[in-house]
Task: structure prediction
Amino acid sequence: MMAPGHGRAPAAIALTPILSARYRDADIARIAAVAPSTRIVTVSLEGLADGPLDDVEVMLRGPLPAATFERILARAPHLAWVHSATAGVERVLVPSAQDRGLVITNARGVFSEPIAEYVLMMILAVIRRLPQLLELQRERTWQPLLATEMRDITVGIVGLGSIGRAVAERALAFGARVVAMRRQAGGAGATAGIPGIARMYGADQLGELLAESDMVVLALPLTADTADLMNERTLGGMKPGSWLINVARGGLIDERALLRALEDGPMGGAILDAFREEPLPPGSPLYGRNDVIITPHTSWTSGRVLDRSIELFCDNLSRYIAGEPLLNTVDTARGY
Result:
């Protein structure tokens, strides 16, 4: 898709907080260097702006609530392009944005490396029995435990975008057998250019992937088609003793069904980094389970992520000004 910049710099750019971090002076300077004639407006997560929004054409947004984004849209009639500093864009695809035909780009690729490293860390922790070993240490008990090698497990990756590909490459490097599912038509059979993937499943073959995978990694966006993807039926079809790892969105999992699958089988456990409600309430029954590892949506964190985020936005801003195609353009009909 061509950028809407028409060969000129935008009159104004709105910046909302990204990645739970304040913009550094160097970030603002880098953006200003690409568009020196452009006014920069900062907007809080509550929608409070330090300047007018009526001439804003471009927005760099972080975890801005959908309701706040809609209020900003109403005040920014010339907004034409929104760059999401998150990979998921469900909070950007509000009806008013789609009605206006906004160009939306996302952060695909920015978080792939740290998330893939997180997934490998967790897989190794489970198969090498790290939680149990730490418990034995706390109990001052000397009890060697039998572990499993990576070569003896199958990792099933649901969603083979940039994150899923990075997970696949690392799991294969450690010797695991890898199968994957992609939703695009014609996805089954091909290996998406990743040598070593044992089998590629289509969107209608999730049950087959779940039945053979020891570790199931959710790495796909939340859309109308993927909401509650892991429900009572699909969780019930998982391989006995298998683990579910969610580094995507909490809405992919029916948490009540997950608790039942953990309690009654067939699952061995779950590693959850994303939840429907964040922060996860202290009273959640997930906290008290020995077969669940919970992290506070932190799989993406890295000292390099903010630099990559600003670099990608500035690259796209240069393209916008030149009227060139933007990177990571979202198909608003598909939601990713």
DSSP finds ten helices and twelve strands in the chain.
